[in-house]
Amino acid sequence: MNRNKEKNPIKITEDLINIVNKAYFEWKALNNTLKVYATRGINFPETISEPIACYCLDLLWNIGASSSGDATNRNGHKIEIKATSNFYSDLTSFGPHCDFHNLIFLRLDYENDIVYIYDTQIDAEKLKIFSVNKISTVGDFQKVGKRPRFSVIKNIIEKEDLKPVCIYDLKNKIIKY
Fold this sequence. Notes:
The chain is an alpha+beta fold. Helix content is 30%, strand content 21%.
């Protein structure tokens, strides 16, 4: 099943989420093997995190679609999806020309195979005000074509005391709201 040739956003079906779940455990096994002899593992693939977010939040996945953004909600708004496999910290990057209506963030509890999904309610314009370092904001970096990086966990989730909108149990394929 090669979904990359799709022209329109796709709905994540039960069949597809089963494939994504299988891919997650294969990624985790490879990641664990690599960590035996290397200090760094493999980043949490967007081809796993994005369909999980879409499945749990009833979004359409924009893989291979002509529209920009990672996903689209039922109102046609562009959704940016970011994720980390380190539950306690992240260094999330954004493109210099990103445009979206809402940022969704996933935190993976790697040991327990549980994904915590946060709706930050931050759009591309609000994102520009966040500090990247002591003197520059996301917007400053974007103006000069750079890719800003900062911690969504520290600067948004913890600062705003956000709670997950849902939790996805990968082992049991259960969404908890």
